[in-house]
Structure formats: structure tokens, C-alpha cells
Specification:
Length: 179
């Protein structure tokens, strides 16, 4: 087997592990923490730690694959609504991918996590306002954005710690990796 084929197999294996972690953490959060509501529509999103890691280590394609895996899990396991998480997730993964690509050497896991959480919440609140034809729902957006900083930091920190455990550290031009 060539070195390139071994690297590809290793990438797929590690991405599959991240996929399993996305499903497990999504289900744990939904069933164990699902009743905790700080503000409407805002969840911790612990599974996003593994999507962040996939984006950083393997690229946006893997981030989107893991997002759609989580979305399908949500539909099958929880009968969750599709419109808001679909819109929020696509924009969130795109925002995290873009910020990682543009600011790769200047932004850490926390910044990517916060970006993803904020992009998700802004998109979901706008989608809700449009679909309900009411801007009243935007009243909760400032609280959702504050929680985005908190929860995005948590998921970014989990992504960072997982990268160390799984030996998926970000390559940063030989410099020490920043959280």
C-alpha cells in the first residue's frame, strides 16, 4: 500500500471516529440536557467540537459531512424540525471553514467555536423571523449571542483537547498550537 493510500485510510478512520463522536454527543446532549433552556433555540452544541476538529484537520468537506450526519441523526432519533437546523448548520460550517481558511495562523479553536455558534444562532433567528413573518423573535438574539460566546468557547476547548488526545494537532508552521 502506498504512503498516500495509508494517509487517506488514516484520515477516513479518524474522520469516522469524529462522526461517531458527533452522533454520541448529539444524542447525549439531546436526551440528557434537552430540557435545559437558557434562551429559546440555544443549545450547548457539544457535538460541534468534532465538526470544528474535522474542519481544521481534514477540511470543510468533512465538516459538512459530519454536520449532515448530525442532522440525519436528529431527524431519525428526535423527530426534530429540519428548516432551522439545516439553515443554521450550513451557515455555521461555512463560517467556521471560512474563518479557519482566512485566519488559519491567527485564530484558535475557541475563535472558530465562537464563530460557528454565533453564525448558527444568527441564522436560526433570522430564519425563524422570516418564516414566522415577525421580527419579535429577534428580541432574544442578544442573549443568544452572549451564549454563543460561552458555548462556542466550550466546544472550541473540547475540540482542542480532542485534537491532543487523538493526535490531530493543527499544523501551524512549526509554532506551538494555540487554543
Amino acid at each position: 500500500m502506498s504512503k498516500n493510500a495509508r494517509n487517506h485510510t488514516g484520515t477516513n478512520r479518524k474522520a469516522a471516529i469524529l462522526g461517531i463522536l458527533v452522533i454520541v454527543f448529539f444524542l447525549l446532549e439531546h436526551f440528557l440536557l434537552g430540557g435545559i433552556k437558557m434562551t429559546e433555540g440555544v443549545k450547548i452544541g457539544l457535538y460541534n467540537a468534532f465538526i470544528i476538529l474535522a474542519i481544521i484537520k481534514f477540511g470543510p468537506k468533512y465538516g459538512f459531512i459530519l454536520f449532515f450526519l448530525k442532522l440525519l441523526t436528529g431527524i431519525v432519533a428526535t423527530s426534530a424540525a429540519l428548516l432551522y437546523p439545516l439553515c443554521g448548520g450550513i451557515i455555521s460550517v461555512a463560517a467556521m471553514s471560512a474563518i479557519n481558511s482566512i485566519f488559519k495562523e491567527k485564530i484558535g479553536y475557541l475563535g472558530i467555536g465562537i464563530t460557528g455558534a454565533a453564525a448558527y444562532n444568527i441564522t436560526v433567528y433570522i430564519a425563524a423571523a422570516v418564516s414566522l413573518s415577525s421580527a419579535a423573535i429577534l428580541y432574544n438574539l442578544p442573549a443568544a449571542l452572549l451564549l454563543s460566546v460561552l458555548f462556542g468557547s466550550v466546544t472550541g476547548a473540547i475540540a482542542y483537547l480532542t485534537s491532543k488526545v487523538m493526535n490531530l494537532s493543527r499544523t501551524n508552521g512549526g509554532k506551538n498550537e494555540e487554543i
